[in-house]
Amino acid sequence: MNEIAQPHDRLFKALMSHPETAGAFLQECLPPEVAKLLSPEPPQLVDGTFVEDHLRLYYSDRLFESKTITGKPLLLYTLVEHKSHEYEKVAWQLFQGIHAFMDQKTREDKNWRKLPAVLPLLLYHGAQEWRIPNELMFLVDADEALRPWLVNFYFPVVDLGPIPNGQLSQHARLRTGFMALKYGTRSPQEQMEALEELIDALLETPELLLTISIYLLTTFPRMTEEHVRLVVRRVKPQEEAEMMSQFAQEILAKGKPEWAALVRQEGEQKGKAETLTRQLQYRFGNLPSWAFEKVSNAKPAMLEEWSLRILDAP
């Protein structure tokens, strides 16, 4: 998948991998008359994608399997639009995804009698407001009298842009993820202005710190090492050293050489910390937990000074 689309795809799929979050997403984003038909059990994620390879630059998809309160199967096909502007042919992409699933289903069960209902849903996080009609017939050039006889469907559109940040979701994890997606396609200035709100959201969902921070690093061009440290110190200060190393490795792997110095620095710091720990254990025996923590969080210069001091220790 192209690197432009990959961070959006990774974040959305990470959010939807939690059944509770996926359930909240469907309950909040589907029309009320549909949401109330869903059974209380969390939806099950169906593996795979139905987006053609050459279109994965612009789209991600997730298929959820659920049931209605009457016990009938219901598939919910969610397409995520990654473009910064609306795309008038999105209904065709939804149609292709539904058709691909139906085709797979009938191939797997040659004796099928009825197909499950598949309801499409579009999640859009572009900068431009969505204004395109949400039906397949918008793309069909036909006389009005023919409309009742032609294939058509409607689809709910969730446009994150106009929604105030605090109202993106009642579910904390979903609200944090949606806020990140919302600003992932905005201007660099808008992105940095939203950083404080994103930190506040992460304080409610610290388990998302690594996932969201990597997303911000790959979609916010002005995000620097200092910005990352600020986020980590506010959300999980006790894990700063470890998380900065993870971020550096991740970003360096994506072709950002400016992070190479941090990778080297973190590696040198880790090596010096391990050497000092061995020296202390050799000299004084087993160490208390606070000593391990102090050594692991120390700066390289301090580690070097302590290594010299231990030579003169009584």
Describe the structure.
- This protein is an alpha/beta fold and 314 residues long.
- It folds into 2 domains: 252 residues, no CATH class; 53 residues.
- It is 49% helix and 10% strand.
- It has 13 helices and 5 strands.
- Strands 1-2-3-4-5 form a 5-stranded mixed sheet, sandwiched between helices.
- A hairpin with a 5-residue loop joins strand 2 and strand 3.
- It is elongated and about 90 Å long.
- The relative contact order is 0.09.
Strand fraction: 5-15%
Largest sheet, in brief, is: 5 strands, mixed
What's the helix-strand series? HHHEEEHEEHHHHHHHHH
How many separate structural domains? 2
**Helix percentage:** 40-55%
Poorly predicted sequence stretches spanning 5 or more consecutive residues: 1-5, 259-267
Mean pLDDT: 84
Cα separation of the termini: 60 Å
Structure summarized in a few sentences:
With 314 residues, this protein is α/β, with parallel strands linked by helices.
Question: Mind sketching the topology for me?
Answer:
Blueprint: H1 6-16, H2 19-29, H3 32-35, E1 44-46, E2 59-67, E3 73-81, H4 90-108, E4 117-124, E5 157-159, H5 172-183, H6 188-193, H7 195-204, H8 209-219, H9 225-235, H10 240-253, H11 260-284, H12 289-297, H13 300-309
Parallel strand pairs: 3-4, 4-5
Antiparallel strand pairs: 1-2, 2-3
